[in-house]
Structure formats: C-alpha cells, structure tokens
Amino acid sequence: MTQTESIDHPQQAARRALVEHRSRQLLDAAATLMEREGSEAVSMQALATEAGVSVGLIYRYFGSKEDVLYAVIVDVLDALATALPAALEDAPQDPVRRLAATFTAYCTVIDSHRHSTLLTYRESKSLDAERRERIKDLELETAQPLMGSLRDGVSEGLLVTDDAELVAYDLILMAHAWALKSWYFTKTRDLESYISSQLALALRGIVAPKHRSRYADLLH
Questions:
Q1: 54 and 69 share a domain?
Q2: Is the pLDDT of residue 23 over 80?
Q3: For position 12, which CATH number holds?
Q4: Helices 3-37 and 44-51, packing angle to 10 deg
Q5: HTH tetR-type domain: which residues (predicted)?
Q6: pLDDT per residue as tens digits for the range 79-113
Q7: Number of H helices, E strands in the chain
C-alpha cells in the first residue's frame, strides 16, 4: 500500500460515514414530517427546516419529494431484510423458537421505524406504479423468514396450521399494529410485553397440544 492509499482509506471511510449520517438524518426527519403533515403538504424547504439543513443539501441526496417518500418506505424494508436473517442466525434450530426470534426482530424494527411504517400505509399510494410494485416485492421478501419457520414447525409436527402464509401475515400485521396504534398501546405496555403477549396469543392457536409444555415460556 502506498502512502497516498494509506491516507485516502480513512478519508474515504470518513466520507462514507458522513453520507450515512446525513442520509439517516434526512430519512428520520422526512418520516417524522410526512407522518405529521402528510406527504402532499411537505415541501423540500419544510424538510430542510425539519432536518436542520439546507435545501441544496437535500437535493444532493434526493431528486424529488417522491424520491424522499420512496426512500423512507424502503428504509423500513431494508432494515427488516437485515434484521430478520440476523435473528434467524442467532436463534436455536427449533422452528418455534426461530419463529419467536423472527417476530421479535420484526417488531423491534417496526418500533424503531414507527413514522416510516405509518407512511407505508398512508402515503405509498402517491408513488408511481413501478415503485409501488417494488415495495410489494420487498414486503413479500420480508415475510419469507416467518413463513419458513412456520413451515418447518408444521413439517416437524410442532405447529398445526393449514395456511402458514396466512399465519405469517397475521404476525406481520401484529407487528405493524405496534406502530399503527402506538398512541394506545404505549399507554399500558412496553415493546417487550407487547411482543410476548402477541406471540403467546398467536402460538396458543398453532402449537400442537402435545408440545405445549415444551414452549410454556412462550405461551404464557
């Protein structure tokens, strides 16, 4: 490695860190502002004010307001695409435990992206058709870890369901409900108790009766 390369390497790392920081700053500000005001009412100037940056800086990252909205929504899905496989990697081989770990990871991502989750429901219709289809494809991909654990549980006789896909989407809706109804749920419970309660509710309906003692900690 030359002396120039040894100097450029930390400089490049610093630039990447700055870009990631700025992107995170803008996405968080956009999610908060659009959820509060609605995307139609948000101008690039309003976003700049919310983020505490110049309008010119925003245009270095995003070409239009639709670009911002799309990035905010995809940010949630990207976070799920990273968190769910990581949860599976750290989980035991038991399919029911893996299902629990994946659902926990899903809810944790939703908790850290509440505003973005709400925007997905409220504002994605304002995106063009191609971007809406891309979001649907990404959502389907995020369901796969849940479906995989469910199907493994059924094949091993641990879970009883004729429709793993439906159960997976029920769990996804439970996770999304933490953001959609956070104004209510956060009055009486924290994220951990919400996850354990919803997981117990779901598993009671699908864990095979002869295996319920094995998962008593999850069911109660």
A1: no
A2: no
A3: 1.10.10.60
A4: 110
A5: 20-80
A6: 999 999 999 999 999 999 999 999 999 999 999 99
A7: 11, 0
